[in-house]
Every structure is written in C-alpha cells, then in structure tokens.
C-alpha cells in the first residue's frame, strides 16, 4: 500500500510541477512580489499532494524562538528537498544560500534571480565567503530571514558530521553581519530521502532551537550550533522510528557526542 501511494504521489507531484512550470512561466517577467506569490502557490499545491495522496504532513515546534522582526540567520539541517519546499510556509519571504550553478538552469535560474537568493561559487572558497557576506548584508537591508545549510548539501540520515562536517561560511556570515542564528533541527530524511524516488507517509518535525545571539567567538558559535542541531535532529529521527514501525530498521549513526 505504501509503495502504491508513493508511486501515485510521484505521478501527481511531477505532473503538477510540469503544469505549474508552464502556467507560471509568464510570472518571471513580473515584479518580485508576484513571483513570491507564485512560489507560495506552487509549494501550497505540493503540500496538498503530500498530505492527501502520500499522507505526509509536518509539525513545527519551538515557534517561540523565532524573532518577531528584523533579519536573522536560519541554520538548518538539510536532509532532503522536502524542507526547501517549506521555507515560504515557515518564514514568509526568506532568501536562501544556494550553489551558483542553479542560476544557470534555463528559466528556473531566472526565477531564482528574481526571487532573490544568495548564490555562491562552491568551487572557490574565498569567492564563496565574499558572496555569502555581501549577500547577507544586502538581505539584512531588506529585513529578510537568511536560510543557510551549514553542511553545504543534503546529508542522508545515516551520515555522521565527521563525514559531512559543518562549513565555516555560516560563521563568516555571523561575524560580518552581527546577526543572530536560529538553529532549525528536522527529520525530513526519514520520509523523503536524499535522491530517493520513493517517499513515505508520516509527519516531518521541524523544531526551532534557542537563538544563538550575536557576538560569540567563532569556535564557540560553531560548537554551539553543531551540538544543538546534531543532538536535536538525532532525537527527532529516533522519535520517527518509534512512531512509525516501518522505520524501525532505518539505519542511523551513533548518537552525537558533545566534545
């Protein structure tokens, strides 16, 4: 039954995406607010398909930690494409740090430019740091939340932080913008795996953790961020295994240990 639902979901998901690309194509010639509205329409449609066809929903915890005004840095775990399609639900009008190559994709790249992202050249460390800092300073002027994935890419649930360490870009951004960091733990990879064609029913948990205020030393902020995100995300993955029997054999790494 789960397999049939997953296959039916893929038919509706990719079909809706194709139709949306055609219908919304003219939107790229309009102003940014119109494009943001189109993005919200698309992600709302995907969410409906997830809920009704696949049986996949989500819950948000720790909302009290979200700043009620101004710009802040969201440091999120990144386990699948699922969370990227929830950013406009979670933050309204966020920007995201993404690889520069995405801007070269026909039409989609134009859409990203219009909506306003922070593209970086991952092949050049110095250039990427400069792009992160300048982009973050620009978004601070626009008072938009900045979403960055500290590990730089999607990380499967069974991969340790030693295999995919946290990168220094977020610390550079934090230090040069004087913005607080809002950690976001999640367990999306338990249901929507990295590069997995088969998606599973259940409930993804997003949990915001206490703010890391500006002004901390580089090593201290990186350690605090890594400890909090890894510990809570591991707990959320374990929670998913307990709540859904079909996940009980999902391989997870050993529990994170604070140094």
What's this, in brief?
The protein is an alpha/beta fold.
Outline the structure in words.
Helix 1 packs antiparallel against helix 2 and helix 5 crosses helix 6. Strands 1-7-6-2-5-3-4 form a seven-stranded mixed beta sheet. It is an alpha/beta fold and 259 residues long. It is globular, with a radius of gyration of 18 Å. Helix content is 43%, strand content 13%. The chain has one domain: 3-Layer(aba) Sandwich (Glycerol-3-phosphate (1)-acyltransferase). The longest helix has 26 residues. Helix 4 links the parallel strand 3 and strand 4.
The CATH superfamily title: Glycerol-3-phosphate (1)-acyltransferase
The amount of helix comes to 40-55%
Compute the number of helices. Answer: 7
**Alpha carbon gap, first and last residue:** 44 Å
Shape: globular
Q: Give me the side-by-side strand order of the main sheet.
A: 1-7-6-2-5-3-4
Order of helices and strands: HHEEHEHEHEHEEH
How large a portion of the residues is in β-strands, by DSSP E? 5-15%
Spans with pLDDT under 50 lasting ≥5 residues?
A: none
User: If you compute it from the alpha carbons, what radius of gyration comes out, rounded to the nearest whole angstrom?
Assistant: 18 Å
Task: Kindly name the structural category.
Answer: alpha/beta
Q: Could you outline the blueprint of secondary structure elements for this entry?
A:
Elements (H helix, E strand, L loop, with lengths): L1 H22 L8 H23 L1 E6 L11 E4 L10 H5 L3 E5 L8 H8 L2 E3 L4 H18 L3 E3 L20 H9 L3 E6 L15 E7 L9 H26 L16
Parallel strand pairs: 1-7, 2-5, 2-6, 3-4, 3-5
Antiparallel strand pairs: 6-7
Helix pairs in contact: 1-2, 5-6
